[in-house]
Structures are given as structure tokens and as C-alpha cells.
Amino acid sequence: MRTLFLLFLSCSLFAATLHLATASNPSRLNPILATDSSSSEIAGFLFNGLVKYDKDASTIVGDLAQDFFFKDNTTLLFKLRPNVTWHDGQALTSKDVVFTYETLISSKIVSPYSANFRFVQSVKAIDDLTLEVKYTKPYFKALETWMMGILPEHILKNDANIMNSAFNTKPIGTGPYKLYQLEHSKNIILEANKAYFEGEPKIKRIAFHVIADPMTRFLMLKSAALDIGSIEPMEYERQISKDFFKSFSVYEEISRSYTYLGFNLRREKFQNPKVREALSLAIDREQLVKILFFDHAKVCTGPFLPSTKAFNADVKAPKRDIKKAKELLKEAGYDEVNPFIFEIATSNANSIRPYAAEILQHQLKDAGVIVTLRVMEWQAFLNTVVFPNDFDTVLLGWGLSPMPDPYMFWHTQSDKKGGFNLVGYNNPRMDKMIEDSQEIIDKTQLDALFREMFQIIVDDNPYLFLFIPNAITAVDTKIQNIESTPSGIWHNYIDWEKEEIE
Predict the structure, then answer these.
(1) What parts of the chain have a pLDDT lower than 70?
(2) Nearest Cα to Cα of residue 397 among 378, 413, 370
(3) pTM to 2 decimals?
(4) Mind listing the domains of the chain with CATH numbers?
(5) Are 14 and 204 in contact (CB under 8 A)?
(6) What pLDDT does residue 11 have?
């Protein structure tokens, strides 16, 4: 503990530093390769896409692009902002965008984000600041695709191995902050980009402290060694005194994420739909939410979030039915003599999930199911369990954008190395519906199709959808100009200021 305090003290020598925590080391600070939460979060400060969502998370607005419009249903034009520079001072041009696209679709990399560009026919630089993107067909996510961070051609064009490039730990972006220091398992420090096109951020440095243990992160927050941090419901309800709220403001909203138990459908024992249905009926989702969240969460009923029109309100979470669960398991060949046995693998980077795994283990025992648990450090979990598909089940979560894209998670083509169809879901009917949806521009028609997909996925039980947690965020009152909106508090972070103690 004393060592951690010294690490914070060393960072506090920098004026106006925003202190944050991350549960794990970032694997690659490269936006096209950042698939873990730590990498994605930090890369978000370093890179920009052509467009982004506005503060209400409802409208797409320009980011690196000053202007954009559809010339026709399959042709999109972008006009880049003038005078945008990379962190090394080189000018951003349309050639960087072309390079990013060509890298994403090349054999040089393995990235789940490549799927977003599958309908792009060509990306052409008309001049230094103008781009023409042609699609093979109308695509409902044509604009959102270009929220992907753009890469610098002048640095990476001769790099033969981008997957293992030094750039991934020494990135050069266009973002409001640039990398100052990266010490694995210690600190990642960003400093303000004085030449940022929207103006230099008022807080000069952001320090991410790598703290794997959730309790240590919480203690750091309580002691004001962190300026911003997430609070778990148990901590909020039982472990915070009234004095805490004198120093911290708390913002709570339903998150745009859900937690699930995913079955490895490549393994024979999970291919029987009766087994998956039995396991679904053997768990009590309401009890899970009550024990873990104290009403700071809701039961998840399917793959699209309630805040979207793709959500199917007619689909309800299954009610626990142990008798029916046992009957289904018996029909599948399992009983007291030959019990169904499987393992739940998860990571301790999320403080809730190991406890959720224990509750699921206990609940499933009532149906005669024997569950073993494996709780791992985040990077080891990703590299040895999740991405190699070496698991029975995984207890994981997805963060989703306001516009869902079922292709990445539910299409057979995404069941590949680096893909996000981690469980190997394969339903030809779903594949066809997803493919049809890609060309639908009419939002009402698209939402109706998504709601139908919602029902089919839930009926197939590739996941047990568990809960949607509330995001509870504590912010030190020394941080000024915080504005909470439907997109959260981070939309205007370059305008934040930190009151310094004399």
C-alpha cells in the first residue's frame, strides 16, 4: 500500500494531473488493435476518428472531419479539418485515412474492427483534405464506421509487423493528449497536446495507475489519491461515509453494457439446446441483481440495450424453474449419477464477476449441475482463455454503441481469430437476417428487424444474459466544469479544470 502511495506522490509532482485507475496493463495503444477495455480507454485520449457522437449520444458530428455528406446512397464524402497535426508535428492528410483503411483490410493485422469496413469498395484521397468513400451497397453504419481512430501513414507505412510494432506502446495520434510515459504495472501518463485542434486541454496531465485489485482501487479513491473512480454498489451502500460526499460528487446512470455467461458452442456438451435451456432455467437473475447490486442494476433480457429501439420489450427474462431444468437435463442424458459438469472462467479485473460466478455456481447446484470456477488476471484471461476459445463458459461483458451491430457478435463470419463471436454462434437464419439488415437505411424497418433478431438470439441461448449494471462514478469536487449528459461525463473533458491546493 505504501508503494502505491509513493507512486501517486511521484505523479502529483506534475501540476494539474488528473489521477485515474485502470485494472490492467493496456495491451496495444493502437485504435485498430485495442480490443481490451484498458487499451480502448487510453487510446481514446490519443486518437480521433473522422466522426463521433454528440454529447446526447444521438447525432453523429464531425471530429477530424469538418464536414461530411452522402453524395448518393453508396458514396460518402469527407472534408477534413485544416491544420490538424499529429503529436510529432506532421500534418494530418487524407492519405492517413486511406492508409488506416488499407491497413485494416490487409493481411498484416487481425482485428475485429475490420468487419466494419466489409462493404467499403474504395477509399480515395481527392486532395489533402478531401476523401471519397464508396460502398458496394447502402450500409446502415456507414458513418459510425469512421469513428475508428486514424493512424499516421508517415510513421507506419514501412512497418512490416504492425501487430507487434513499437508504435503500439509508443503511439502517435492526433488526440487531445499524447503519451508521456508508459510503465507496465505502474503508471501510464498522458500530457496535454498544446496543438490540439479544439484547443489545449486545461488539465495538463492524466495519470492512469495500474491497480489490478478492486479493493485497492476503492481505497485509493476514498483517500482522494484518485480524482475519478467507479464505485461498486456494495461500496456505495455499505462502505462510504457521509464525509466522502463532501469531497466527491457522484453520478449514476444505467450503463451501455451488459454481463453474460457465454457457452462455448464448439464443445459438444453445449450443442444440445435442452442443456442450454436447462442452465438458463436453473439460475435466478433477480436474485443475482439483488445480491450483487442493491437495486443499482437491472436484469438483462437480451443482446441489445433498453436505451435503443432495437430492444425487444416483449422478451422477458426466464423465471427460475428447477423442476423443468432437471427434466431437460435428464432428457439430455444427465442426472444424479451422471451430472452435467462445466467450468466458468472469468477475470478478477472486474470486482463483481468473481462473486457472480460463485452465485451462479450455488444456484446451478440446486439443479444437480456441478460448476468449477477459474478466476484469472485480465491479460492472461484474454490471451490464454478468451481469444484461443479455450473455455467451457466465460463470464464476460460487452460495452455497446448506441447503434448496435449484430454482425460483430452473432454472424458466423465473426467466429474467427480476433473476432468477437467468441462462443461460436452459428445460425444460418440469423446470418441471413444480419446480412439483410446491413442494407436497410430506413430506421423504423431496421429497428423492427433488430427486435426480431433479439427474440431469436434469446431463444437460442448462446449466452445467458445476466445483468445491466448502473455506472456509479465518483468525481473529486476539485474537478470543475463537469457536465453530465446522456453520453456520460467525459464528452467535454478538455474543458475540465482541476483546482490546485496551495
Answers:
(1) 1-15, 501-502
(2) 378
(3) 0.79
(4) 51-156 (3.90.76.10), 257-470 (3.10.105.10)
(5) yes
(6) 46
